[in-house]
Design goal:
heterodimer, A: 204 residues, alpha+beta, three-stranded antiparallel β-sheet, 5 helices, 20% helix, B: alpha+beta
Chain lengths: 204, 190
């Protein structure tokens, strides 16, 4: 029985939404479909109605969030996803930058807008990371494009959750995030737990 | 160690695409968004890149078809596939209607088509031989191959409804000569 996340275990999610329509690929000047798998470190292990698997913090909550808002057959609720669960998400904080004294993200909100219902609520979380794109990703989907482009004039602000999601979308497609972006990581200011942050998200 | 599909085991797919309106606009059943889970019987068990799970015939093929099994390590791109440990898809034939002699689907092709280019296939419509006729209450008929009939049937079931409450079904799948694996390999759109 698995009681802790093995070292080097990576996320085992399958995300068909990464399979983009041809028009999206065209807009990004690429013919390469993004990866429908994820290579982020796993922080959760679940056994339940969607099988037994290791998941990263993002994909665990993504699965919970989507399943919670959709129809569930009797005895098939989202709570059954983790009938048995190992949750080590709090270890995400070990990845936060240390000894940071800047406050550039203070007073800013996460830049993520609601792409599916433009004008509706996007992410309202406090920003903790500022990303300044320094080079253009060529030949692959640029995952920053899901953001309000106006905000990129002063940098793109992210909460921890959406920063990590974006970061690993780049990594899962073979792109070193830091090669294309300057990152100011002020997540040391985060007072919520990782689980609390996820539960308060207004938009995935 | 799992050596066969347990009785009453249902599919364990998590299908995030179900929240995309174009995928489920034909299903207006509950006030909630369509289910991202599936309640179809499982016929396949896999272990691998996407965990250990039981899948129905449709979601197994869906994941295989739509999965870009890419991983990146120090040496670059790695293609990681699932290990299919149990494949009992041929048992789907046990669900075909018995003692059917009609041939109304003969010469027809499957109605299913891709959604707005979302498929990666270059062919956007299923041109498989039709084996099922579904007729709505107004007398309008659609024809399906086995694969797409099962897909639509269980999409209704997974959302708490019975497809047969909306359509009269003529099941002529007794005419199917391919194996389930052969059929899935010839599917041009999911």
């Amino acid at each position: 029985m698995i009681t802790s996340i093995p070292e080097n275990a990576i996320c085992q999610s399958f995300d068909p939404r990464m399979n983009k329509p041809e028009e999206v690929l065209k807009n990004h000047n690429t013919k390469e479909q993004p990866n429908t798998s994820c290579v982020a470190p796993a922080y959760v292990y679940v056994e339940g109605k969607h099988g037994n698997k290791f998941l990263c913090d993002t994909h665990y909550y993504y699965e919970i969030y989507l399943n919670r808002m959709t129809y569930a057959a009797p005895n098939h609720s989202w709570k059954e996803i983790g009938r048995y669960m190992v949750d080590e998400r709090e270890r995400v904080k070990e990845t936060f930058a240390k000894n940071v004294t800047t406050t550039e993200t203070l007073g800013h909100k996460c830049s993520l807008i609601n792409m599916y219902n433009v004008g509706n609520l996007g992410c309202t979380a406090d920003a903790l990371v500022k990303v300044i794109p320094t080079a253009k990703v060529i030949g692959k989907i640029n995952f920053h494009s899901n953001l309000n482009l106006n905000s990129s004039e002063v940098g793109i602000f992210y909460c921890n959750f959406h920063y990590r999601r974006t970061y690993y979308r780049f990594v899962s497609n073979g792109i070193v995030f830091e090669d294309f972006n300057k990152v100011i990581d002020e997540r040391s200011r985060m007072t919520m737990t990782i689980a609390e942050e996820a539960d308060r998200l207004t938009y995935i | 160690m799992i050596t066969k599909i347990p009785e009453n085991q249902i599919c364990q797919a998590f299908d995030a695409m179900m929240i995309m309106p174009e995928k489920t606009s034909h299903i207006t059943l509950s006030l909630k968004k369509p289910s991202t889970s599936c309640v179809a019987p499982a016929y396949v068990y896999i272990e691998g890149t996407h965990g250990n799970k039981f899948l129905c015939d449709y979601h197994y093929h869906y994941e295989k078809f739509n999965g870009n099994y890419l991983d990146y390590d120090d040496s670059g791109l790695v293609d990681k596939r699932e290990n299919v440990l149990i494949d009992e898809r041929e048992r789907v034939k046990e669900t075909f209607a018995k003692n059917v002699t009609t041939t109304e689907t003969l010469g027809k092709t499957c109605f299913a088509g891709s959604n707005k280019g979302r498929t990666t296939s270059t062919a956007n419509n299923c041109d498989a031989e039709a084996l099922v006729k579904a007729t709505d209450k107004n007398g309008n008929s659609m024809f399906f191959c086995n694969f797409h009939y099962r897909k639509i049937y269980y999409r209704y079931s997974s959302n708490g409804s019975n497809y047969e409450d909306f359509y009269d079904i003529l099941d002529e799948r007794y005419r199917m000569t391919k194996t389930m694996i052969e059929e899935s390999l010839s599917i041009k759109c999911i």
